[in-house]
Amino acid sequence: MASNVMRPTFAYSVVYVKDVAKSVEFYSRAFGHNVRRLDDSHRWGELESGQTTIAFTPLHQHETDDLTGKVQSTQSARERAPIELCFCYPDVDAAFKRAVENGAVAVSQPEDKEWGQKVGYVRDIDGNVVRMGSHVK
């Protein structure tokens, strides 16, 4: 049997953004998350989202650019990052409407999928794709 030392929990999803404070405020308004913290330097922010934290940090910062390389941004609206955030809601249509009313850009209206989920897509204020869906039936 494996020990608990080798069973990590998924702790953070980090979103690299142009303006941490604006992104934290946007996600709070558009998607309904509570702000856990925004540090005084505005270089780190966190939202409460269940067991996993959604964190925000600037696109470029000395500490990480020099250590692990620079974040590559998409160059057009026809491109997307190789990751997307997905949020589940009991009422996808209402959540989608709220997100768009608070500055998200509609990509695809919510629609029923063949696998039993209702899904819609928006872009956040940095152009990142956010999937809004129901739990799979």
UniProtKB/TrEMBL annotation:
Organism field: Microthlaspi erraticum
Stored Gene3D superfamilies: 2,3-Dihydroxybiphenyl 1,2-Dioxygenase, domain 1
Pfam families in the record: Glyoxalase (PF00903)
InterPro entries: Glyas_Bleomycin-R_OHBP_Dase (IPR029068), Glyas_Fos-R_dOase_dom (IPR004360), GlyoxalaseI/FosfomycinResist (IPR050383), VOC_core (IPR037523)
Domain VOC: 9-135
Protein name per the record: VOC domain-containing protein
Alphabetized CDD domains for the sequence: VOC_like
